[in-house]
Every structure is written in C-alpha cells, then in structure tokens.
Write a structure and sequence with these properties.
Rossmann fold; alpha/beta; 7-stranded parallel sheet; 3-stranded parallel sheet; 2 domains; 420 residues
Length: 420
C-alpha cells in the first residue's frame, strides 16, 4: 500500500471561473481523480495555508471521502478574517486608497496562517506516509522536516525563460532551496526535462522522467448544430459565420498579437467575409491597445473576445471551429492543442519547444515569429477542405496516444520502484 500526501492547493483555483481555472488546475484534478480509482493507494490531501479559506469547500464539495493531513479548526477566526479582506479587496480593487490596505490585510493574514500552520498536521498519520506529491512546485516545510520522499511535477521552465521579478524570486529563493536529493521529478515533456537539467544541476536523468499530460475524456467531437447555435449566442458569436478558435491567457509569450494581426491581413488579402476569430481565455487589458499600435483597428465584427469559456462549452467550440490556433513562443507541454485534436479540430501550432511532441504530424506547424507562415497556414486550411479533414482525423488518432491512466501508471510504478 502506498500512502500519498497529495497537494490539493491548486484545486482551490476551481472556485474562481477565470484564468486560474485552467492548466495546472485541470492537471492537478485529473491526476488526483485517476489516483483515487486505485484501490491500493491511500491518499491524504494537503492544502497550503494561503488557500485555507477554500479548505471546507474542497472537503465537502469535491472530496468528502478522502482523508486530510491537516485540521484548520484552530485557525478558523484568521481564515474568516482573510476571507473578509479578500472580499473587500475584490470590491474595492479599483479604488485608489482602499485597495492597498485590503491587499495588505490579505498578506498579513496569510503570513499569520503560515506561522500558525507550521505544525498543523496529524503527527500520527504522518508516520504512515510513503511520499508527498505536488502537481506544482510546492514542498511544505513539514515534508522535508520528516524526510518524506517528494515527487514533483514540472510543467515548464517559463519563469526562467521569461522571468518576471516575482516569479524568478519565488522559484530561486523558495523552490530551489527546498529541493533535496530525496526528490524525484516528473516532467511533462522532453523539452521541460532538458530545460530543467540545464537550469538546476540537481535535476538529472537519474531523478527525473517524462510523463506526458492528457486531455480530459469529456473532450470529444460534437456536431450538434442546435447546441452550437445556443453556445454561439451565449458568447456573442454570430450564428451565420464560420470561425477559428484560440484559447489561452492573453500574455505576450502566447503570441496572440501576431496571430490575430496576421489573421486580419489574411482576411483583407483574400477578401474573405464569412470567417471570424473567436478568442477564448483570460483577458489582457492592453491587448486592443497593442493591436492599434501595429495599425490594426479592433473590429468587433471580425474578432470576438469570448473571455472565459465554461467547461461544458469547450468541446462544442473546438469541434465546430474551422481550425485552432496556438502559435506560442514557448510551451512546456501545450494542453489546448491536444484538447482541440481530441475534438477533431485541425490545429496550427508553433514548431518550437514541446509542441512537436504533442502535435506530431497531425497539424500545421510554423515558426512562431513568422508573419508570412501564419498567413500561409491560414490560407492552406481555408482553401483546402480535404487538408482540414485529413488533419482532423490525424488529430483524433494522435490524441489517443495520451491518457491520464497511462500517465498515473508511470508515476505509481516509479513510486513503487523507489519503495522496493
């Protein structure tokens, strides 16, 4: 029997329907749900004090039958105060003088929670634990203190490749100082593994392995026209237009400015009037401003900002798009193209980082920084229905190579090997 402390901190992101409820949240939940299916694994959930305000919700709404390594009963007053500061900060976020005090209140209560929770775990149960698993970069102090083997899932090296002050500081001063020879690293792609081996010398071939991600089984081809019209109306998408689809948070690395700008050029060049771009995902405030700097006028009849897409609507939007665009500058894996392929949607992706590992020969792959190649790819799909159909079928077959069952099998096998 393997007893795992599973870091469920990222699952707390499910309670906010925004950019946080993507990527790592779905990965964290998919792996946990697959582990729960195994009869020979005992699971304890761990939640970081910073997310303690969601503890009761996770316990009652998501996983009431699982065991928890912590008990936040003694911290309830601080948690309620933390919740109050979060609510006030959200309400007065745009207020010049009030948002900072409430933000300080959030930080202060989180600091207090961290101090109160240093030894907030079941000492009796901790002796039964085989290992700790985090689908992110978190290693709690009590895990290292008790010399419990740690398994971490490394998604990408983005904070190193595209550093910001906060992310770089967090990784270098927290993640790196906590990793030990007692750790093992699951990497979501060969790209991620090779990147981390270069960045952190402690990560080697001996203590790391590749375990790919997978799309949820709910992503299947759906061609119900009534449902499609209903979904289009929901997201203000014209029902009489064909559309291409993108799904990502709107940050520079995602290369969405170039993808949209070249789409407009493609439309104008070929005098096309029956096709629009539907842009799903978190919003980037300066997106329109950046487009206009490049002399592209924001046209709401041509580019639809759909924003956050509810889970139940993704399959129908993927399935009925003419094609899916994901020409990112760098990805540790690239889950959206895999979801699109599983729904039978032809894809256009970049030919860099991990994306070739995911897409293979099932899509059009181009240089992320080439305007010309973007336009050529759009033209290939728009004017060649046979190519779209071929890549739709290839994508469905390619997606079958990835499954959460296979991924978790590899993880559990490695844990058992370490025990024996």
């Amino acid at each position: 029997m393997i007893s795992i402390v599973y870091d469920a901190t990222y699952i707390a992101n499910s309670f906010k329907k925004d950019a946080n409820r993507s990527g790592i949240f779905f990965v964290a939940k998919s792996i946990l749900d697959e582990l729960i299916k195994r009869n020979n694994i005992d699971i304890y959930l761990y939640i970081s004090p910073e997310k303690a305000r969601y503890f009761e919700k996770i316990k009652t709404e998501f996983y009431p039958k699982l065991k928890y390594i912590q008990d936040f009963t003694k911290q309830k007053k601080v948690i309620k105060l933390n919740q109050l500061f979060w609510a006030l900060h959200k309400k007065f976020y745009t207020h010049k003088y009030l948002r900072k005090p409430f933000a300080f209140g959030i930080l202060a209560t989180q600091y207090i929670l961290n101090q109160l929770c240093k030894n907030n775990y079941n000492t009796t149960e901790i002796k039964k634990i085989t290992c700790f698993f985090s689908p992110g970069y978190l290693i709690p102090n009590f895990i290292n203190k008790n010399n419990i083997p740690v398994y971490l899932l490394l998604h990408d090296a983005i904070p190193y490749m595209f550093p910001t002050i906060n992310s770089k500081k967090w990784l270098v001063k927290d993640f790196e100082k906590r990793i030990t020879k007692n750790n093992f690293f699951f990497c979501v792609s060969n790209q991620t593994k090779e990147d981390y081996k270069k960045i952190i010398p402690m990560i080697t071939n001996e203590n790391s392995m590749v375990v790919t991600l997978a799309a949820n089984e709910k992503f299947q081809k759906k061609e119900d026209l009534t449902l499609l019209d209903h979904t289009k109306i929901k997201y203000s998408i014209p029902t009489d237009k064909k559309y291409i689809f993108s799904l990502c948070n709107i940050e520079p690395r995602k290369n969405l400015i170039r993808a949209v700008r070249t789409f407009v050029e493609f439309i104008n060049k070929n005098k096309i009037n029956d096709l629009i771009w539907v842009m799903g995902g978190g919003q980037w405030d300066s997106f329109v401003e950046e487009l206009e700097k490049q002399n592209i006028k924001w046209d709401t009849s041509l580019i639809i900002k759909a924003g956050y897409i509810d889970d139940e609507d993704l399959s129908i939007l993927y399935s009925n798009a003419e094609w899916f665009v994901y020409t990112s500058q760098y990805e540790g894996f690239g889950l959206p193209p895999l979801e699109a392929m599983q729904c039978g949607c032809p894809v256009i992706t970049s030919n860099n980082s991990s994306l070739p590992e995911v897409v293979g020969d099932a899509g059009l792959m181009i240089d992320w920084d080439s305007d010309e190649q973007h336009i050529e790819a759009y033209e290939k799909y728009y004017f060649n229905k046979v190519l779209r159909q071929e890549n739709s079928l290839k994508g469905i077959e390619r997606a079958k190579l990835f499954s959460w069952e296979k991924t978790v099998d590899l993880m559990v096998e490695q844990m058992r090997k370490a025990i024996s």
